[in-house]
Structures are given as C-alpha cells and as structure tokens.
Amino acid sequence: MTCQLSNQDVEKAVAFHGHSCPGLAIGIRAAEYALRKFSGTAADDLICVTETDMCGVDGIQFLTGCTFGKGNLIHLDYGKAAFSFYDRDGTKALRLLLRPDAMAGESGDEPDRQEIERLLMSKPLEEIFKIEQIHGPPPRGARILASLACDSCGESTMESRTRRFAGETLCIPCFNQVEQKI
C-alpha cells in the first residue's frame, strides 16, 4: 500500500530534514505506521525509542511530535533501523524493524537511491518492517535533575552526567581527560 500520509506532510518532513533520501523514507513510513496504530493518543503520550540516529529519525520527530526535548524520543545507539513506539499508559507498544529485503528492487537489479526511495514509499508497511508487539511497561518519563558545576572546567552539568574522580565532581569531557589510560 502506498504511503497514506498527505503529500503536504511528506513534503514538510523533507523540508524539515533538508533533502529527500531513502533513510528519511524509512522514518516517514515508520511514523505513518505509528500514527495509524496509535491514533487517538495525544502527541505528548506517544513515545519513540529509536535504535539509530539515521535520517529517518527526523521523519519520526516531524510527523509524530516525539522529540528529545520533550523526553518522548529516546535514542539507543545500536545501529539498527528499528523504532519502538509506546503510549504512556502502557496499553499499546510495538517495534518496527526494517526488513533486510525492504529496499530490494523488483527486477532483481541493484536499485539506485531514487528507486529505493520510491520502493519504500510505495510498498505495504508489512513488506518494509518486521512488526513485533512489545510486552512490558513504557520507558519512564523524563526527570528534572539538579545541575552541578564541574570542579575542573566550572561548566554546569546535569547531575546524572557527572562522574566522581579523586574526590571531584567532573563533567564527562573533563573526566575522560583525567581518566585516560594511555
């Protein structure tokens, strides 16, 4: 089934990202699936856990409203084209994983980038993603933590991102400088 999002929404997602590409098409189609399955879920109650930092995340951010700043877009740096979506009340959860053959050409030839993008925007979602139901609670909401001054550089740093070393509170860059093993 061809992408069911309006051309205007797709064009706005492309403008947000800065260019059209297969990676963005993956995110657009993942967002399309999430929006369909989580219809009626308020934007602030939809959570996305992305296992990649690829172009597609821009499509998900733009179309679903999940953002790092609101704490409902969580990045796990696994290098997988996988996106899990939850509603905050824990009643729905699913994971989309890009199928290895999702970008394969119909003729068996190696498709170019434009052809891959066309395929991704026109194939049924079930041919693009392996879709799994998730069992378990959604990720917890964002916490507001104190900021601490780094004892080395003096910069204010979120408490959870500081390290203790030799009796000092250090930001991660300063900690990495003194903790180097070589």
Polypeptide structure, described:
- The strands form three sheets. This protein has a five-stranded mixed β-sheet with strand order 2-1-3-4-5. A two-stranded antiparallel ribbon has the order 6-7.
- 32% of the residues lie in helices and 21% in strands.
- 31% of the residues are buried.
- With 182 residues, the protein is α+β, with helices and mostly antiparallel strands.
- It is elongated.
- It has helices spanning 7-17, 22-37, 56-64, 113-122, 125-128, 172-179; strands at residues 46-50, 73-75, 82-87, 93-98, 129-133, 147-149, 156-158, 162-165, 168-171.
- It is built from six helices and nine strands, in the order H-H-E-H-E-E-E-H-H-E-E-E-E-E-H.
Descriptors:
6 helices, single chain, five-stranded mixed β-sheet, alpha+beta, 182 residues, two-stranded antiparallel sheet, 2 domains, elongated
Compact description:
The chain has 182 residues and is of the alpha+beta class. It has helices at residues 7-17, 22-37, 56-64, 113-122, 125-128, 172-179; strands spanning 46-50, 73-75, 82-87, 93-98, 129-133, 147-149, 156-158, 162-165, 168-171.
Domains counted in the coordinates: how many? 2
Main sheet strand line-up: 2-1-3-4-5
Cα-atom Rg, whole angstroms? 20 Å
- CATH first level of the largest domain: which class? Alpha Beta
Total of DSSP H or I helical runs spanning 4+ residues: 6
Tell how many strands the DSSP assignment holds.
9
How much helical structure, as a percent, in the residues? 25-40%
CATH topology of the largest domain: the name is: 60s Ribosomal Protein L30, Chain: A
Mean pLDDT: 93
